[in-house]
Write a structure and sequence with these properties.
With 250 residues, the chain is of the alpha+beta class. It is globular. Helix 6 crosses helix 9. About 2% of the residues have low confidence. Strand 3 and strand 4 form a beta hairpin. 35% of the residues lie in helices and 14% in strands. Strands 6-5-4-3-7 form a 5-stranded antiparallel sheet, with no helix packed on it. A two-stranded antiparallel sheet has the order 1-2. The protein folds into 3 domains: 102 residues, Cytochrome Bc1 Complex, Chain D, domain 2; 75 residues, Cytochrome c-like domain (Cytochrome Bc1 Complex, Chain D, domain 2); 47 residues, Roll (SH3 type barrels), CATH 2.30.30. It is built from 9 helices and 7 strands, in the order H-H-H-H-H-H-E-E-H-H-E-E-E-E-E-H.
Amino acid sequence: MRYTILSLWFAVATFAQIKAPSDEASLRNGHTLYQFHCSFCHGKGDDGMAANLVSPNLVHAPTDSSLVNIIRNGIGGTDMPPALGMTDEEMLQVAGYVRSLGRTAQTSIPGDKAKGRALYNGKGGCAGCHMVGGSGGRMGPDLSQIGAMRSPSNLRTSIVEPNAAIVGGWTMAHLTLKSASKVSGIRLNEDNFYISLRDGKGKIQTIAKADATKIDRDITKSSMPSYEKVFTPEEMTDLIAYLFSLRGAM
């Protein structure tokens, strides 16, 4: 009966504001469930390869209701799957635990973000591929809110080992056409007959597969090179400080 009532409550949750529990018992249970269901990707919350959860403002979950919805249904088009094997009450407890991480969020990290910004726009050439606040290239993910989505350690890994985790929707494709010319770019869309790419100049090309003799898809390789040898350790720390400061309009 208890779970039936909870299920009915969740059925109308779209129209009501859910409040994640914060009592000690719920947080303890939420932590146990988090360890089993979530830590493989999110680590301790700020050291995994998935989104940074040690933040008071989660980009995709501004409310407890939206956080529970993400736990329940996942996020389409990303690596975040729906919950499996959790009751409604357990999902609430996980949400409560995740919120508790945000209440102890790290507010500052080492490094000079002003120097990091100069490196981002200068030595790193990052703006050629990434946007911040509507300015920059479109060959890589928008970084306007990256500080609210990724932890400092996650950012460092992405810069040093970009192939460690490929961001969904940003894989490359290389086509050899019947004319012997070659086309490469970010794979935007693909069906049985056509493939759409954004090339290095930002131009979108839709090519009939019948016009190609070969199509290679780099699903395990990032188009971003490693910057491990580009920046000194001090510069890397400054760059990460800048990226971690990017939190959009939040």
